[in-house]
Specification:
Blueprint (H helix, E strand, L loop, with lengths): L15 H4 L25 H12 L4 H13 L1 H15 L4 E3 L5 H14 L4 H8 L2 H4 L2 E9 L3 E8 L4 E3 L7 E5 L2 E7 L5 E4 L13 H26 L4 E5 L5 H12 L6 E5 L14 H21 L15 H38 L7 E3 L8 H11 L8 H8 L25 H8 L7 H30 L3 H12 L5 H24 L2
Parallel strand pairs: 8-9
Antiparallel strand pairs: 1-10, 2-3, 2-7, 4-5, 5-6
Length: about 525
């Protein structure tokens, strides 16, 4: 087989035959086993501390198993972590061309089709498992036909380990390299490592941050259940007289025990037992408050806030909830940017290189976040500034308004038809044409004459504004300078002309009234 002309990121040729092979298969046994023993069962705080320390030192298998079990066992953690994942996975996916060059646009269209193929949506969702467990890995099994097309296979993160020297290079566990593992081949892996904090990647998962709150809540719930089991049932006391026989006592005992399984007793009438009600000392409220407190800490760790995850006295619809929701949006934006970087590095660039060869720039997958916008104000401002020379691309306005590009042969909306004056027509003739088929009257002639007189006056007034607009580099600078210039404009000629127009209109009205028009 000849040497490949495709070079990897390290500049070395890539064996294209390896791209179509499935490398990281699992099995029943071995270093890539699909079965793992439970870690959360009977876990103690001391064991948890040792487990997290082992993970930081390079042996992360038990930590990764615990991270998975935490999502299965803790309802609140599963809920808020799912909320954070879906905040990114539900964002629209777009592809931006590297440039306006026809070849770059064609490649971007091809990548856009790739994002619409089966498997890409699930890839986006499974990638976000890295939020809890520090990283996620997908193997790309390339299918060779008319094009190189990727198939995505999720791989258990326990099948990988970080190198011992830096703790940052992820390597595949393999019997051939039982200690260090195998290096990940270029163009074969999508490795997502969200940047949640600075430091070693294995210490960046949310599961590590939440683990101690989770185990405290697990203990609190266990004690709460024991408390409810004992004090949630009515205490039954059977009393018997001094002359009761053993058979009588046995019958009474059986009757009392049949009322419930625990918290039952029989005793002579001459005896008594005092019970201090736990509820008066806090009782079940103590456990409930502790669990609620731990839930709020988990919400802060995962979402950055508590108001949208936990119903407080202020209510979910309060203004506080709106403020806290903005904080969660900041986290969502950062997660989306991390996902964009991973997909563009590990999927888009290999796909373009394999099908089109290396390029100076590549298209980009983005997850645009559209905040609510006052579209009426946008249209009003653009319409007001266009007469002053503002130029706006039609495609930009379509994107801002959410309108797609019209399809070929589509029926398009049109502006109401307006009479178009010939460039050779005089102002008087243009004004008369505007009246279309209306009869020519004295007010018509007067309006045309005043319009002709107003044109040079208005042109003189707007000339300084147009000059300022041409010299400004931003709307803010234009607004500041035109405000100062407005105070200096001489509008006396225009005021005098308007006075004549009002006088003429009044006289014309009286004239028509006298004629009975």
């Amino acid at each position: 087989m000849g040497q490949s002309r495709i070079l990897g990121p390290d500049g070395q040729p890539i064996e294209t035959a390896d791209l179509s092979e499935e490398i990281a298969r699992g099995g029943v046994t071995g270093v890539r086993s699909v079965w793992h023993d439970s870690v959360a069962r009977n876990l103690t705080p001391a064991r948890l501390s040792a487990l997290l320390e082992d993970a930081a030192n390079g042996n992360a298998d038990e930590y990764l198993t615990l991270a998975e079990e935490m999502e299965e066992r803790e309802l609140h953690y599963a809920s808020v972590l799912g909320t954070r994942k879906r905040a990114v996975s539900r964002l629209p996916c777009t592809v931006e061309s590297a440039s306006d060059d026809a070849d770059d646009v064609r490649i971007a269209d091809d990548v856009r089709e790739l994002t619409l193929k089966p498997g890409f949506r699930l890839l986006r969702k499974d990638m976000l498992d890295a939020l809890g467990r520090s990283y996620s890995v997908h193997e790309i099994v390339w299918q060779r036909g008319a094009k190189w097309l990727p198939q995505y296979e999720w791989r258990d993160p326990r099948w990988f380990r970080f190198d011992r020297e830096t703790g940052r290079e992820l390597r595949l566990k393999d019997p051939q390299a039982p200690i260090d593992g195998l290096a990940l081949q270029p163009y074969k892996w999508i490795v997502h490592r969200p940047s949640l904090k600075t430091g070693l990647p294995i210490r960046c998962g949310l599961a590590r941050l939440v683990a101690f709150a989770w185990i405290c809540k697990a203990y609190a719930q266990k004690d709460w259940n024991a408390f409810a089991e004992i004090f949630g049932l009515p205490l039954r006391i059977g009393r018997y007289g001094p002359g009761a026989t053993a058979k009588d006592i046995s019958v009474l005992r059986h009757a009392v025990q049949s009322l419930g399984s625990d918290a039952a007793a029989i005793l002579p009438a001459s005896m008594s037992i005092e019970f201090h009600e736990a509820a008066k000392n806090g009782g079940g409220d103590l456990y409930e408050r502790l669990c609620d407190y731990l839930d709020r800490q988990i919400s802060k760790a995962v979402l950055g806030q508590t108001m949208t995850a936990d119903a407080q006295k202020t209510g979910l619809g309060s203004n506080n909830a709106s403020v806290h929701n903005e904080v969660r949006n900041d986290i969502r934006d950062d997660d989306a940017q991390d996902a964009e970087e991973t997909l563009n590095r590990d999927l888009v660039e290999p796909y373009v290189i394999l099908n089109y060869g290396p390029r100076k720039a590549y298209p980009r997958i983005t997850f645009p976040i559209r905040e609510p916008e006052d579209l009426a104000a946008l249209v009003k401002n653009v319409t007001a500034l266009m007469p002053f020379g503002l130029q706006v691309e039609e495609s930009v306005m379509r994107d801002r308004l959410g309108f797609p590009e019209p399809a070929k042969n589509a029926v398009l909306l049109k502006a109401p038809s307006r009479p178009v004056a010939s460039p050779t027509q005089e102002p008087t003739e243009q004004a008369l044409n505007a009246r279309q088929s209306a009869p020519l009257t004295t007010p018509d002639r007067q309006i045309a004459r005043l319009a002709a007189q107003a044109d040079p006056i208005v042109a003189e007034l707007t000339a300084p504004v147009e000059a300022i607009l041409a010299a400004c580099n931003s709307f803010e600078e234009f607004r500041e300078r035109v405000t100062d210039t407005y105070r200096e404009l001489d509008d006396r000629a225009l005021s005098a002309l308007l006075t004549q127009a009002l006088t003429a209109a009044q006289l014309a009205g009286r004239y028509e009234l006298l004629l009975g028009v």
